[in-house]
Design brief:
Helix content is 48%, strand content 7%. By secondary structure, it is mainly alpha-helical. This is CACP acetyltransferase.
Length: 182
């Protein structure tokens, strides 16, 4: 249950004549942008906890498939994720599961692939994403542990562990796609 929150307090600002017109211009611009937004909401019974296809994971897998379709390959991707359950104020990076996403993307491109196989690969990729999400939210993701190792070496004046000097590490941490869900 949530606790009732106090009513927000209205803040009053004293805006001088030199900035007042700019604030009004910005307000009109923001209002015009807001007026140009269309929001369509819908509900689909095939997703959610009961169906096993979590919408958040499905969106991340779909982004991987879309990138594959646009570029012919997957890329280093991260989703910043709050660790508020284990480390308040900290975040970690959630990476999508590459092999299941690649298998799904390739099957969706294959005109001979059976829909049952495509659906099975979709479920496998979404479950792999769910599994990774649970791992990271529990504080068991590798990204912050690696960052801690790197920072500890720097703080101790030690040479960086060789993993950080490997070109593959540099490529794996050059994120071409960074996603964030609201």
């Amino acid at each position: 249950t949530s606790l009732p929150l106090p009513r927000p307090q209205r803040l009053r600002f004293s805006i001088g004549p030199e900035i007042g017109p700019e604030v009004e211009r910005a307000k009109r611009h923001l209002d015009s942008l807001a007026a140009d937004v269309d929001v369509h909401c819908f509900s689909h019974e095939g997703f959610g906890a009961g169906a096993g296809l979590q919408p958040e994971a499905l969106v991340q897998v779909a982004l991987q498939v879309a990138f594959y379709r646009a570029h012919g390959s997957l890329c280093a991707t991260c989703e910043p994720t709050s660790l508020r359950g284990v480390l308040p104020g900290c975040t970690d990076l959630l990476r999508p599961p590459g092999p299941p996403c690649l298998a799904l993307a390739q099957a969706l491109e294959d005109p001979d692939a059976q829909p049952e196989l495509q659906m099975a690969l979709l479920r496998e990729a979404v479950e792999a994403q769910n599994s990774r999400t649970r791992e990271v939210l529990a504080g068991q993701g590798p990204e912050r542990h690696l960052q801690g190792l790197r920072q500890a070496a720097i703080a101790a004046g030690e040479p960086l562990p060789e993993i950080f000097l490997d070109p593959a590490y540099a490529q794996a941490t050059h994120f071409r796609l960074c996603t964030l869900q609201v």
